[in-house]
Amino acid sequence: MPSVNLSTGSVHYSEHGHGVPLVLLHANPGDNRDFEAVIPAFAQHYRVLALDWPGYGQSAPPELPETVSASFFYNVLREFITALALPKAFFIGNSLGGNAAARLAIESPDLVRGLVLVSPGGFTPHNFITHLFCKFQGSRFALSPHRWASLYLKRRTPVTKAMLERASTVQATAPRLALSRALWRSFAGSEHDLRQSASAITAPTLLLFGKQDPAIPASKDGKVAAQCIPSAQFVALPCGHVSFAEVPELFLAEVQPFLARCCNA
Question: How far is residue 250's CA from residue 35's CA, in Å, rounded to a whole number?
Answer without folding.
Answer: 14
